[in-house]
Every structure is written in structure tokens, then in C-alpha cells.
Design goal:
Strand order of the largest sheet: 4-5-9-6-7-8
Distance between the termini: 47 Å
Number of domains: 2
Organism: Candidatus Thiomargarita nelsonii
Largest sheet: 6 strands, mixed
CATH superfamily of the largest domain: Mur ligase, C-terminal domain
Strand content: 15-25%
Protein name: UDP-N-acetylmuramoylalanine/D-glutamate ligase
Number of helices: 7
GO biological process, one term: regulation of cell shape
GO molecular function: ATP binding; UDP-N-acetylmuramoylalanine-D-glutamate ligase activity
Number of strands: 9
Order of helices and strands: EEEHHEEHEHEHEHEH
CATH class of the largest domain: Alpha Beta
Domain Mur ligase C-terminal: 88-202
């Protein structure tokens, strides 16, 4: 529970603030609980199944909330080690030949895709698979993030060429007629250490029943390929 002299607990992805934060400990990044000027290491980031800064922020928030309502810390840390996350939300799918595959089919708008790209923390090492029904979105907002974080983009769906227009000056852009073709193209473009991210920034209904179906087709194509 909250200490009697505190009205809230805080968390931060920065290492200089927050009751729960991320700090370096024995050469690794750890979720930690701070006490005055020191900290207690709780869990290595490498021990979490959830990947990316967005998921780390969620973990810190959960730890802060759990402590505030009196949950046992050991139970929370065990959950963080084993929880795989919700399907189709920047979910890790597989690693093959040193390349990580992520399914963020729930990323149906530009803002969600920008957040997913940034969360992987792999500047210049992401192959982005995007496209579908654009819903009138302004894809120019993707350009700066893609230029910094992505090696290439593979586009699918009815608005692929609208997406390509603002991105073409940032990274190589290719087009695929199916998810299976997009997965195959992305695999050829990727190198060891890269991440291949499905985060469409679009609705799915031009090619799929819904975003879940799109994510399922993506994961099936990945597993068949690797």
C-alpha cells in the first residue's frame, strides 16, 4: 500500500525520476524500485516476454499500481516474466536467423504505427509492412519516423500508393499483392539484428475480415516461411 506520507507512486522510462524506472545494473537494463538515492533491481528487461519501450512503460505502470493497491511484488514480477501480451498489439511472433518478427495488426492508424515503430528501439533496423484502407489519414506524419527507424517498407492494400508517396524519399518502398508476398519480400530485405514489423496504419477490410484475421494471416505466413 502507499506509505502514509505519499499520495501517489510514479513511474518513468528515464533513469533519473520515478519510483519505478529503468536503470542499468550489472550491464543490463532492469526494472527497478527506487528508495531515496538508491534502487532495488526487480527484473531484467531481457527476462520479459513483452518487448519494446511501450511494453516497458506498461510494466512500470503496472508495478506502481500494484504496489499502491497492496499486491505482492513477487507475484507481479512472475506475471511480467510469463505474460505474452495481448494478440496483435506489437506482439513478438518469432526469431529466425537473428531477425525478430512482430505483429501489430491492431495498429490501424498512423499514430499507433508511429508508437509501435518507436517502441522497438531499432533505428535503421526495421522493415515495416503497412497498408490497407487508409480512412483518409495523412501518411506524411509517418515519413520522419520511417526515415529514422526503418530500413525499408513493404506496402499492401488499396491505399498502398497513397502511403508510398510521402515515404519514397525516406526509404526503399516495395509493393505486395498479398500478406504472404509481403512477408517474403520483408524477409529478403532484412539482415541479422533487424526487426520485421507488421503495423499497417490502416483498417483491414479491403483484404481481411478484421484486424485479427490480418494478424493471423501474417503470423501463419511467418511460420510457414521460417
Amino acid at each position: 500500500m502507499l506509505p502514509p506520507h505519499r499520495q501517489y507512486l510514479s513511474f518513468s522510462l528515464r533513469n533519473n525520476r520515478g519510483d519505478f524506472r529503468i536503470c542499468q545494473y550489472q550491464g543490463e537494463s532492469y526494472l527497478v524500485r527506487t528508495h531515496n538515492s538508491s534502487f532495488i533491481p526487480l527484473l531484467s528487461i531481457n527476462q520479459m516476454r513483452l518487448k519494446g519501450r511501450m511494453m516497458q512503460a506498461n510494466a512500470l505502470a503496472a508495478l506502481a499500481l500494484g504496489e499502491a493497491v497492496g499486491l505482492h511484488q513477487s507475484a507481479m514480477l512472475d506475471a511480467l516474466q510469463h505474460f505474452r501480451g495481448l494478440p496483435h498489439r506489437c506482439a513478438w511472433v518469432a526469431n529466425s536467423q537473428g531477425i525478430d518478427w512482430y505483429n501489430d495488426s491492431k495498429g490501424t492508424n498512423v499514430g499507433a504505427t508511429i508508437a509501435a515503430i518507436k517502441s522497438l528501439e531499432k533505428p535503421g533496423q526495421i522493415i515495416l509492412i503497412a497498408g490497407g484502407e487508409g480512412k483518409g489519414a495523412n501518411f506524411a506524419y509517418l515519413a520522419e519516423v520511417v526515415a529514422h527507424h526503418c530500413r525499408a517498407c513493404v506496402l499492401i492494400g488499396q491505399d498502398a500508393y497513397r502511403i508510398a508517396e510521402p515515404l519514397a524519399d525516406s526509404v526503399p518502398v516495395s509493393h505486395a499483392q498479398s500478406m504472404e508476398e509481403a512477408v517474403a519480400q520483408a524477409a529478403k530485405l532484412a539482415s541479422t539484428g533487424d526487426a520485421i514489423l507488421l503495423s499497417p496504419a490502416c483498417a483491414s477490410f479491403d483484404m481481411f475480415k478484421n484486424y485479427e484475421h490480418r494478424g493471423q494471416v501474417f503470423e501463419a505466413a511467418v511460420r510457414q516461411l521460417i
